[in-house]
Amino acid sequence: MSELNKIALQIISNGKGILAADESTATMTKRLDGVNVPSTLENRLLFRETLFSSSAMTDCIGGVILFDETIKQISTKKNKIPKLISSMGSLPGIKVDTGAKVLAGSTNEKITEGLDGLRERLKKYYELGARFTKWRGVYSISEKHPSKLAIYSNAHSLARYAALVQESGMVPIVEPEVLMDGEHSAKECYEKTSDVIKKCFEELILHKVDLAGIILKPNMILPGNKSKDKISNEEVAKLTLECLKSSVPSEVPGIAFLSGGQSEIEATENLDLINKYNDTSFIMSYSYGRALQQSALKFWSKDIKNIEGTQKIFNHRAKMNTLAAQGKWSKDLEN
Ligand code: 5MM
Question: Is 163 exposed, middle or buried (0-12, 13-18, 19+ CB in 10 A)?
């Protein structure tokens, strides 16, 4: 077993999942504005360190994806943030892309940037304690999207990123996110997600990435959020499994889904059903941002000093998702 494969398994085995706390300052400001808390450096740190010092970090969260600002911060109890995370029994990770920009030659599609100087930045993040990384490519669905150009260029960047990350001794999370926005059907989401993922693996293989040392972070197969097409959670789970079975090489140890705008319960229920039906060799876990943090953030915003109360809510959500990652969740456990 390679060192990278060991790290990947450490993050997502036994129902453990990933906390995506890598919101850029712009996104975090949007989240904090939404609950009427000023987006200051101190408040961003306080909310995040509240989560990072909760008991779920030991029992449920195998890895945390950090943003550049956070990985360099010191907690109010004078702990370096990566140290705090590892002392709780979890692994620190880092988002290394620098965001999605308009792709030249496209009709307003996106290409994720951040390859320039990446090798040097990776060295610094490793020294700061990071053992895995994340890069997200985003794709929209419409009649003409994602275009061949967007599918190819994002796959190429994801592969170049993953090769550099493995060279630096860290596990790359490869995140091709086909967005939920739009009127498309689940069938369209299935077809377009399948095209996107297949191209990613074509490029990963071309760039000699060790597939046993990555984690794939895809979207689930869902109808668009403005679609007339409504499907059951069972169908979501079955379509998601079918799509991944036909597009992901078997060497990949695990898949950690993004929540992509699903409600907390929906994201848990779909993950649980995916695991109840899972007939693949892949570990199926979670790498949720909003679906792990929403309720905790809302509670915290009412009294930012109530650390214990906030942690209780976060612990519950993480526990529910860890049960779902083993196919052991049921609705009555929510109460
Ligand atoms: C946590 O949000 C991540 C970063 O967002 P920006 O770079 O746009 O600020 C995002 O990549 C996230 O890791 C994934 O989309 C998963 O989060 P959700 O909320 O979809 O589970």
Answer: middle
Q: CA 22, CA 6: separation in Å to the nearest integer?
A: 23
Helices 290-302 and 307-324, packing angle to 10 deg:
160
Query: Phi/psi of residue 117, each to 5°?
Result: 70, 10
**Phi and psi based region of residue 237 (left: phi greater than 0; alpha: psi -120 to 50; beta: remaining):** alpha
Q: How far is the CA of 288 from the centre of ligand 1 (A)?
A: 8
Please say if 191 is a catalytic residue: no
CA distance 216 to 199: 13
Distance of CA 254 to the CA centre of its chain: 12
User: In degrees to the nearest 10, what's the CA dihedral of 88, 312, 257, 41?
Assistant: -70
Cβ-based neighbour number of residue 326 at 10 Å:
17
Selecting among 175, 177, 188, 203, the annotated active-site residue is 175
Give the single-character DSSP code of 103. P
Paired sense of beta strands 283-288 and 215-216, if any: unpaired
| Residues in the chain, total | 335
Catalytic residue flag (residue 217): yes
242 vs 105: CA distance, rounded Å: 33
pLDDT higher than threshold 90 for residue 72 = yes
DSSP-derived 3-state class of residue 237: helix
Whether 1 shows a pLDDT value over 90: the answer reads no
CA atoms within 13 A on the CB side of 261: 13
Surface-to-core class of residue 266, CB atoms within 10 Å of its CB (0-12 exposed, 13-18 middle, 19+ buried): middle
- Residue 223 exposure: Cα atoms within 13 Å on the Cβ side: 11
Q: What is the pLDDT of residues 149-207, one digit of tens each?
A: 999 999 999 999 999 999 999 999 999 999 999 999 999 999 999 999 999 999 999 99
Q: Which of 95, 219, 271 to mutate to test the pocket of ligand 1 (most atoms within 8 A of CB)?
A: 95
pTM exceeds 0.90, yes or no? yes
Instruction: State the Cα–Cα distance between residues 7 and 168, nearest whole angstrom.
Output: 13
